[in-house]
């Protein structure tokens, strides 16, 4: 009994040591790599790779620990290993979809198409990427909080809104009577106010682009512009600039048309 307990303690101790070793190696190795990388995009890619490697190694460690425990209880693990090998081959032939998912997941990971924390749209599902494994990508919706699980092998097109940079896009409608040059000047002044704000200036990467008069609508004219921002900064900039542009238009007496309902009592 004492020998059995000693072997159990020894086996558990080795498991814990390997567990801590894997954790330290992944943290130290990837920590040094990430420190040497300046670009945030590559950092997120390596963080995703770190998570997958870490969980894979820990899974192998747990499997070895379980087999050692079974061996201590007198259970011959060789038939189990042989059976697992045969089942693995059978599953490999039968689970074509799983193999496709894993291979596609590897390609997505290596190419850096999707990283944890990115805002993406895949097959009608959009939201922030919470988790990436080789067969599955987990996305959480911003508005409802719903979680979508997407098989990597089913992904044909990925729309990533947070790679390298983003754009805050603004379609402004003004009345027909307004002078276009004056409206553009007012927009530039509003952008100047936005850029001088220390809360928002770090998110802005370039000057505003004003495309000019884009479309004649029924009761207004459409002027489009956009601001280049840091990844995931477009929503913050859009909300802030909309507030500033309304105040600036009111200051410059530029009319923003809106539908009105007139009720007449007969």
Explain what this protein looks like in three dimensions.
It is a single chain. With 266 residues, the chain is an alpha+beta fold. It is 51% helix and 19% strand. It has helices at 2-36, 40-72, 77-94, 96-111, 180-195, 234-251; strands at 119-122, 125-132, 136-140, 147-151, 158-160, 166-174, 209-216, 221-229. A hairpin with a 2-residue loop joins strand 1 and strand 2. Helix 1 packs antiparallel against helix 2 (40-72) and helix 5 (180-195) crosses helix 6. The longest helix is centred in the first third of the chain and has 35 residues, at 2-36. The radius of gyration is 28 Å and the shape is elongated. It starts with a helix and ends in a 15-residue tail after the last helix. The relative contact order is 0.09. The mean pLDDT is 82.
Give the count of helical stretches.
6
Give the proportion of residues in helices: 40-55%
Instruction: Count all strands and give the number.
Output: 8
Distance between the termini: 101 Å
- Provide mean pLDDT, rounded: 82
Major β-sheet strand ordering = 4-3-2-1-5
- Our Rg estimate from Cα atoms comes to 28 Å
Proportion of beta-strand residues? 15-25%
Biggest sheet architecture: 5 strands, antiparallel
Name the shape in a single word.
Answer: elongated
Q: Spans with pLDDT under 50 lasting ≥5 residues?
A: none
The chain-level structural class is: alpha+beta
- In N-to-C order, the SSE pattern is HHHHEEEEEEHEEH
* Oligomeric composition of the shown chains: single chain
